[in-house]
Amino acid sequence: MNTVGWVILFFIVADYWVHLLADGLNLKAMTDTIPPAFETIYDPGNYRQSQDYLRTQTRFGRTVATADLMVLLVFWLGGGFAMLDGWTQGLGWGPLATGLVYIGAVVGMKTLFDQPFSIYATFVIEERFGFNRSTPATWIKDRLKGLGLAIALGGPLLLGILAFFQYAGDTAWLWCWLLVTLFGLAVQFVAPAWIMPLFNRFEPLEEGPLKSSIMDYARSIGFSLDNVQVMDGSRRSAKSNAFFTGFGRHRRIVLFDTLIDSHTTDELVAVLAHEMGHCKLRHILKMMTAGILQTGVLLYLMSLVIGSPQLSAAFYVPEPATHSGLIFFGLLYAPVDFLLGLASQSISRRHEYAADRFAATTTGHPRSLIDALKKLSVHNLSNLSPHPWYVFLNYSHPPVLARIAALEEIGNA
């Protein structure tokens, strides 16, 4: 193995141990004492269940991470990338077809390897804690639909990237950046109407006090909203959530049906006020712009090394090629992606605080959002006392107790 290979190996193993350490600290941060803010809604039995859920998820996550690392190392150090490259090159097809087969094989093998873990997580862990509502038939259909979308959408995108890097010379990264950006924007527009309904049923929120309250609030802040959609999240999980998706006339605010069943009208308005706050404060636009810029940086750096003999040699592949270079660069880029991810999550946490403030001040009822956050945390068995290092590495949202404290300051102001 050459120097490039040792550098990549070091960062892959370091990333594994950094997250393993964070897992251990997170478990040690658990306390048997229910936080005062939750004493009135969390009984000791359910609180112990939430801690058991965290332990189970952490142990399972460690198992998956260890298995992923071991398989990658065995495949890499055992010459798997080189053997796969030799097989695909031996087909005698052109560079684009060869690239599609090579990358498709790598992704396909990884996907097949992941399925037993997904089955265990859904039908053992989530079932044990009362969350799973998915049937084996639904699970299989979801995977087949996901595979179909990956082929139908990801295939042409990958083909375009391979073609530009193969034939466009020094400007390939610019053309790829344009292609990926347009593709991402197009998916954002069509996903609410065409893609998401493949997996879930969306119905307009029925007429009544809840819809009237939501629409009145939206008008009060100048938020254009034709309707609120209710998603049948209960088909797959008992967990609750709400989210915002799409742009312009295609944007949707979506409530899980499980959320409606367990919250008051004021709490639901507060939750949606938070989601509308992300839009009004331009968080979605800012994060999308940052993502586009990050993609441009990634593609430029890729263009510098994708044909490097040293990078190919690090994986025991004798001749550099565009398709293998894409895979190898993904592993080389991991440390940069890790650091950018930390920055992105830090910004996201600040955005969550800002959206909370927006909801609290525009509704005039911080307590409603506090109550909603408490109920969501209890219902989803969320960890109430995560370790700060774990939060720094993994959380896109602030811990719920920190959010509640910030909202209480607003209410006391």
Automatic annotation (TrEMBL):
Gene3D superfamilies: Metalloproteases ('zincins'), catalytic domain. One of its GO terms (molecular function) is metalloendopeptidase activity. It is found in: Endoplasmic reticulum membrane. Pfam families: Peptidase_M48, Peptidase_M48_N. The keyword Manganese does not apply. Its cofactor is Zn(2+). Residues 27-201 form the CAAX prenyl protease 1 N-terminal domain. It comes from the Bacteria. Residues 205-409 form the Peptidase M48 domain. Binds 1 zinc ion per subunit. Zn(2+) binds at residues 274, 278, 352. Keywords: Endoplasmic reticulum, Hydrolase, Membrane, Metal-binding, Metalloprotease, Protease, Transmembrane, Transmembrane helix, Zinc. The active site is at residues 275, 356. GO terms for biological process: CAAX-box protein processing. The chain crosses the membrane at residues 6-22, 64-84, 90-109, 147-166, 172-195, 284-306, 326-343. It is a multi-pass membrane protein. InterPro entries: CAXX_Prtase_1, Peptidase_M48, Peptidase_M48_N. The keyword Oxidoreductase does not apply. Belongs to the peptidase M48 family. This is Peptidase M48. It comes from Desulfosarcina ovata subsp. ovata.
